[in-house]
């Protein structure tokens, strides 16, 4: 429980960026990855997965930081 509360406190103090996916952003990201894929398709695939995974983690961290944690004191 202490680890959970420490992690929550860390998240509350962390500055979490907001990622906004606009149509233009997605089109440009697609063009960049297609260009990379011309020479190294495996690198392009890894890049896309890494970026989307990081954005997902940021989203989860943000959602978790807004949860209310109830503790019982003995």
- Alpha-beta classification: mainly alpha
The helix content, as a percent range, equals over 70%
Q: From the alpha-carbon coordinates, what is the Rg to the nearest angstrom?
A: 18 Å
Q: How many angstroms does the end-to-end distance come to?
A: 13 Å
Largest sheet: none
| 3D shape | elongated
Number of helices: 3
**What's the β-strand tally?**
0
* Count of structural domains: 1
Strand content: under 5%
Give the oligomer, counting copies of the same chain as homo and different chains as hetero: single chain
Which regions have little confidence, pLDDT < 50, spanning 5+ residues?
none
Helix/strand order = HHH
What average pLDDT do the residues reach? 75
Secondary-structure map with pairings?
Blueprint: H1 2-13, H2 23-39, H3 41-65
Structure description:
- By secondary structure, the protein is an all-alpha fold.
- It has one domain.
- Helices cover 73% and strands 0% of the residues.
- The chain has helices spanning 2-13, 23-39, 41-65.
- Helix 2 packs antiparallel against helix 3.
- The chain is elongated.
Give a concise summary.
The protein is mostly helical. It has helices at residues 2-13, 23-39, 41-65. The protein is elongated and about 45 Å long.
What labels describe this entry?
0% strand, single chain, 74 residues, mainly alpha
């Amino acid at each position: 429980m202490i680890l959970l509360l420490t992690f929550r406190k860390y998240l509350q103090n962390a500055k979490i960026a907001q990622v906004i996916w606009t149509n233009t952003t997605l089109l440009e990201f697609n063009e960049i990855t297609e260009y990379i894929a011309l020479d190294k398709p495996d690198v392009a695939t890894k890049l896309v997965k890494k970026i989307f995974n990081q954005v997902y983690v940021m989203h989860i961290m943000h959602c978790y930081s807004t949860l209310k944690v109830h503790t019982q004191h003995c």
